[in-house]
Amino acid sequence: MPHTHKIAIIAGDGIGKEVIPAGLAAIEKAARGSRVSLELTHLPWGCDYYIRHGKMMDEDGFERLAAFDAIYLGAIGSPTVPDHIAVWDLLLPLRQRFQQYVNLRPMRLLPGLVSPLANRGPADIDMICVRENSEGEYAGLGGRVHVGTPYEVAEQTGLFTRKGIERIVRYGFEIAVKRPRRLLASATKSNALRHAMVLWDEVAEIVRTDYPSVEYRKYHVDAIAARMVTHPASLDVIVASNLFGDILTDIGSAISGSLGIAPGANINPERDFPSMFEPIHGSAPDIAGRGVANPIGAVWAGAMMLDHLGHRDVHDRILGAVERVVASGKNRTPDLGGTATTKELSDAICTEI
Ligand code: NAI
Ligand code: MG
């Protein structure tokens, strides 16, 4: 019996439109001959849509998306649309509305790639960040008053709930307990953020008692940022708030060779709503339209989507192909020091699949 999955595709803007076709090509190739069948629906939403229609997505967008099994997203953002509109009229509401409270971001130096960290190899850089994705510093609370006057005030409030912390920390432990090293690092800042991060630490202390086999440590977020550079091998799973995880995963992708490689999954663990899979990079206006974006982050995110849908074998087939192509040293895009186009790297991955 084939498993049919309904996938909504939002390629979005800039290089999103270039890397999503590469991801789809890999997914479709890997699914061929398996029991997976995909029903793809392309949705033209994003900044280009905003410029033409005055809105990032259709009014019934959330209702329509709710009917899919997963969402596959490229990138949202354009120099012609203010970023807070792009982010707040599509991306963050999606993550919040669909209770995608886990943002899962693997950070691995693939064999064959060179880290900007001297003398570090694949054994040194193999981490995964479990980032809180629905509240915290990106909850959207606050406001501005006396706008445009010398008395102008902006207030941005972080929102941390016991339930929100509990579920993300628990998810972190669940990931850690299944990994060989069983280390969980919690990114805190309870010395300075004396309300929210103290609650964060307290809740983590309670949850850890359910996972005696996991070695739990808390670090202040600035210290963990430095540790990722100086002692990356000491880190395995990192659980972090929305803002902290956002920043730490950019470091993680940078030390893994390129921002273009890193994937991200926005997961609703209860499966009440579709989860969303995307490369962590943005629309990269500086290189958009030239066909040279690295598609690996998108391909890897597509593999994570198949894994989430119950097809670990298809995930492994795609990732294995990516690893072999990267290890071969051929077909590298400019961010990896080569001259290959998105299409050439994508074709090489598909051939390997
Ligand atoms: P960015 O990730 O788009 O680009 C940062 C740098 O990395 C650029 O130099 C870019 O050329 C390079 N880069 C990124 N992805 C690459 C790839 N696949 N291959 C090769 N090089 C790659 O971040 P930036 O410049 O801060 O943001 C650009 C736009 O994207 C903004 O509008 C921003 O709001 C949006 N954005 C959207 C995200 C999303 O949709 N999830 C995430 C991050 C940014
Ligand atoms: Mg980010």
Question: Quick summary of this structure?
Answer:
The protein has two domains: 206 residues, Isopropylmalate Dehydrogenase, CATH 3.40.718.10; 142 residues, Isopropylmalate Dehydrogenase, CATH 3.40.718.10. It is 39% helix and 23% strand.
Order of the strands making up the biggest sheet: 2-1-3-12-11-4-5-10-8-9
Unreliably modeled segments? none
As an assembly, this protein is single chain
What is the number of helices? Answer: 11
Strand content: 15-25%
What is the radius of gyration?
A: 20 Å
CATH homologous superfamily of the largest domain?
A: Isopropylmalate Dehydrogenase
CATH architecture of the largest domain: 3-Layer(aba) Sandwich
CATH fold naming of the largest domain? Isopropylmalate Dehydrogenase
Question: Bound small molecules, which ones?
Answer: 1,4-dihydronicotinamide adenine dinucleotide, magnesium ion
Main β-sheet, in a few words?
A: 10 strands, mixed
Q: H/E element string?
A: EHEHHEHEEEEHEHEHEHEEHHH
Could you say how many structural domains there are in total? 2
What is the helix fraction of residues, given as a range? 25-40%
Q: How many DSSP-defined strands?
A: 12
| Average pLDDT number | 95
Shape: globular
Structural class: alpha/beta
